[in-house]
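User: I've been trying to design a sequence by hand for this structure and keep getting stuck. Would you show me what you'd pick, starting by listing the structure so we're on the same page?

Assistant: Good idea, let's start from the same input. This is the structure you sent:
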């Protein structure tokens, strides 16, 4: 999956450019530029409002003693949405606005959480003599060993 990211940095701008040229041919270059700027201004305004709302909900969650997990995920989605909105283009603006609308933002987060898997070997390659083989201790995954820790300086 991570190997395909560089392709997006080539394909998405080309598709955006094509779409901007097509829209410019229909409504005119000036109106197209104004539309792109207008979506960025509206997006930044909505981002500010949604960001403060999410921040307030996170603060209330922490005051109640609960972890603001959804609010943290929403904050990341808002950051992505903001980046998409300041990127010129209609496809990125559409995706950015979807990140700003609370219902679609939460639906996207729930979808990603349901379908997200983390493969530790992508981050930590296997080492040692059992490279590629199942370790003796791998059958005890998730086992917690309680204990105390004392630091002696």
């Amino acid at each position: 999956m991570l190997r395909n990211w560089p392709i997006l940095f080539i394909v998405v701008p080309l598709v955006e450019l094509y779409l901007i040229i097509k829209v410019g041919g229909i409504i005119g270059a000036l109106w197209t530029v104004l539309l792109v700027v207008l979506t960025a201004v509206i997006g930044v305004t909505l981002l500010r409002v949604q960001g403060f709302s999410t921040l307030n909900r996170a603060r209330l969650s922490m005051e109640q003693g609960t972890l603001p997990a959804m609010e943290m995920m929403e904050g990341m989605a808002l950051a992505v949405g903001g980046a998409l909105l300041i990127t010129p283009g209609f496809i990125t603006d559409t995706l950015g606005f979807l990140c700003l609308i609370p219902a679609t933002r939460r639906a996207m987060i729930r979808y990603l959480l349901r379908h997200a898997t983390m493969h530790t070997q992508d981050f930590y390659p296997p080492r040692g003599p059992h490279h590629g083989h199942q370790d003796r201790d791998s059958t005890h995954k998730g086992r917690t060993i309680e204990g105390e820790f004392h630091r002696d300086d």
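That's my pick for every position. To get oriented when you compare it with your attempt: The chain has a mean pLDDT of 82. Helices lie at 5-27, 29-63, 69-86, 90-100, 102-115, 120-123.
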